[in-house]
C-alpha cells in the first residue's frame, strides 16, 4: 500500500479513487499521456474523465491560465470580467439556440441543477422526464433524475421524475428493433405516459448516454420526441456534458444528430471545455434564462482564470479542427476495435461516435453482462500503460474510450493493440 493511499484511507471516503485495485496517483501529463508517481507512463484513453478535451498540459491553455492568474484569480460574480463575456459570446454563437444566454457554473451537476431550476420555474411544474439508464450528476436533484440507479444512491428527490424508454437499445423491451420501429415504440410509450400525468416541465436527455455505457439512440429519436413534447408544452434539455465540443465527430453537439428536432430549449455543458479547469454552464433561450433573478449567482461560476482556460482551449479546438480529427481517428479506432472484437469471445458490441467509443462485454458464450471482465480488462490495460474508463448499467460492463480529441492515428493503433491483448483476459 503506497504512503499516499494509507493517508487517503484515513481522511477520505472509502469509495474514493478505487478505480484500480492499486490506486493510481497521477503526477503530470503531456499531450495524450500522463505519468504516475512511480514514473510509469500511460496513454490516456479516457482524457482524464472526458475533461482533457484537447491535450494534457496544452501550452496555450497553461499560458492563458498563468497570465490571467497573474492579473486576478477571482473578483466576484457580482461584477463582470472580460474572459467570461467573451467565452459566453463564443458558446452562444456555437450553441445553435436562438437568442441564447449563457450562465456559467463550476460543474456539470450544477449546470443541470440550474437547468432544472429554470425549467421548473418557467413551466411551474416539479415533474421532470428523464431517460432510463441516464446520468446527470451528484447533487440531490441531479441524482433524483438519474435513471441509472447504480449511480443514484438515494431514491428520495425533491423532483418527481418519470422515466422514458429510448436510452438503451441492446437490452430492454425494444432491443433489436430496427431504428424506425424503435423510435415509434419509444414515442408511443412517451405519449402513453403523458396521457396519465399533469404536464412535466422538461425532458432532460444525454444525446449519447455517457456513464450509461456510451449508448447511442437512433438518429432522429429526439426529433420524434420533440413533436410530442411541443404538443404538451414541455421543454427539452440536452445534457451535453459528455457529448459537446465535437467529441462525437460528425457534430459539434450531440443534439445535432437529431437535427430535425431543431436546437433544444436548453443545453448544459461542462467537462472538456476547460481542459480540466472547473467550468460548467447552461445555454437557454432568453425568455427561459431570465426566469431567474439577480440573486441567482454561482460564487465561482465564470471565474476569470477558468474562463481564460476555456477561451484558449476552445480556440485551439476550432483552429485545429479537433472535431474533424475525432471523426477521422475515432472512425479508424472503431473499425480496428470491431476487427479485434470479431476475434475475441465475449464482446457484445463495439459502438461509438467519433472519440466516444463503448465496448460492451458479456460472459463468454452467454448474453450476460460481465462486470468482472471489464474490471480485469482495465487492470490488464493499465499494466501495459493504457488508461480507459468503464460504465454501463448497474453492472458496469462497458469499456469506455474517450481520449483527448487530438489523438493521433499512431496512438489509436497503440491503444487498440494493448486492448487487443487486454481483452483476451476476459476469457
Ligand atoms: N451530466 C453528464 C452527462 C455527465 O456525464 C456528468 C458527469 O459525468 C454530469 C452531468 C455531472 O458532471 P460533474 O461531474 O461535472 O458534476
From TrEMBL:
The keyword rRNA-binding does not apply. GO terms for molecular function: transaminase activity. PANTHER family: ALANINE--GLYOXYLATE AMINOTRANSFERASE 2, MITOCHONDRIAL, PTHR45688. Keywords: Aminotransferase, Pyridoxal phosphate, Transferase. The keyword Coiled coil does not apply. This is alanine--glyoxylate transaminase. Its cofactor is pyridoxal 5'-phosphate. Homotetramer. It holds the Pfam family Aminotran_3. SUPFAM superfamilies: PLP-dependent transferases. Belongs to the class-III pyridoxal-phosphate-dependent aminotransferase family. Its EC number is 2.6.1.44.
